[in-house]
Amino acid sequence: MIESKEIISELAPLIEECGFDLYGICEAAIPEEDQKNILTWVKDGKHGKMDWYPKNMDLRLQFSNLGFEPKSVIALGTLYNDPEYDGICKTMSFRFSRYAIGEDYHLVLRRIAKPLVSELKKKFPNHRFRQGVDSLPVPEKVLAREAGLGWQAKNTNLIHPELGSFFFITVILTDLPISVANVPLKDRCGTCTACIDACPTNALTPYRIDAGKCISHHTLEDHSPKISNSFGWIAGCDICQDVCPWNQVKARKKGIQTKREEFRARSVFKENPNSILDLDKEGFDRVFGDSAISRMNFEMFRRNVELAKEWVRKKETF
Ligand code: B12
Q1: Which tens digits make up the pLDDT trace of 188-240?
Q2: How many CB atoms lie within 10 A of CB 226?
Q3: Domain spans of the chain?
Q4: Ligand 1 center to residue 224 CA distance, Å?
Q5: Does residue 255 carry a pLDDT above 90?
Q6: Could you list the active site residues?
Q7: Cβ distance 7 to 129 under 8 Å?
Q8: If you write DSSP's letter for every residue of 21-56 in order, what string do you get?
Q9: Does the beta carbon of 201 lie inside 6 Å of ligand 1?
Q10: Separation of CA 126 and ligand 1 centre (Å)
């Protein structure tokens, strides 16, 4: 069996050249406690309107029906926080989450991992390698945590002690057996409850999210014509990460930011962000056609815009 240290040290230069800031390897297995928590989460209906979530539980928890039996997982992370984001926010009357201001991360992560996947296939021609960026219904945070990319925090996101939490995750599942001796990163949330206290919809209790209450879910996953208050957010929400000291103090102080041009704000955010509020269908497709929010349809976008405008009006009245 190959040792993870051996593979990592050999592939590290290529992984970094591809543009990944974090990487690690773990066994392809979801620990029992996580399986239990995920099942309870669904049983309690905490997945809100994401009816798709409970559909593939065998694949999600046991990797069944994948076409091969994965033995190991290579987990990769890439930062997405644009250094200009805070400045842009000052010029917008509404809010738009960091993860959605640039190019669709699903496409970017797939594209940048290609040289690595090709190299793995060339090096181990008798083994399978399958990459997922949300596309495979597997719990990426759990796998990335097991691979040492971060600890799973009270706001449920993965945080790295040096880089914070503004990073995307992608996993490569493989039937190549790799021996791993990872010591997972220690939970450093301590007694802090900043994320829980700041969430205006009370979606968080420590280490657990009620997705049905989360603003990100309202704006992106709820297709109903009416949604509850989104507090000015048109796409996604960053509140629980923005207030996190690991982003706010640690990562910011060190100037941790994305090196990838694709995740920097598209020009409309720099030139005239408020013009987004007036986009018609054609404009929406033009501006956001290759963004992560293109999954949100135009009707949802208009609904979110109207709600954000209402929030701005109310704020101005008080
Ligand atoms: C469904 C989903 C959502 C849902 C649910 C969020 C969630 N926390 O799961 C919604 C739409 C709300 C969402 C929002 C966001 N998402 Co999202 N999302 C996913 C997706 C597709 C699946 C995650 C999942 O399986 N959730 C199921 C629940 C059960 O998992 P969990 O909350 O982590 O629960 C664990 C613990 O909390 C704990 N737990 C659960 N219940 C209980 C109960 C008790 C008592 C205890 C002790 C523990 C416990 O055990 C669980 C298993 O370890 C992943 C991609 C993937 N394939 O994994 C991306 C992903 C998690 N999202 C991501 C991002 C970036 C976001 C947003 C920041 C986007 C935005 N700006 O709006 C927000 C963040 C909101 C938040 N605080 O989580 C990134 C996170 C990267 C990172 N550094 O962690 C991922 C990994 C996508 C990616 N490929 O990069 N997302």
Answers
A1: 999 999 999 999 999 999 999 999 999 999 999 999 999 989 999 999 999 99
A2: 7
A3: 2-179, 193-255+272-314
A4: 21
A5: no
A6: 134
A7: no
A8: SEEEEEES---HHHHHHHHHHHHTTTTTT-TTGGGG
A9: no
A10: 34
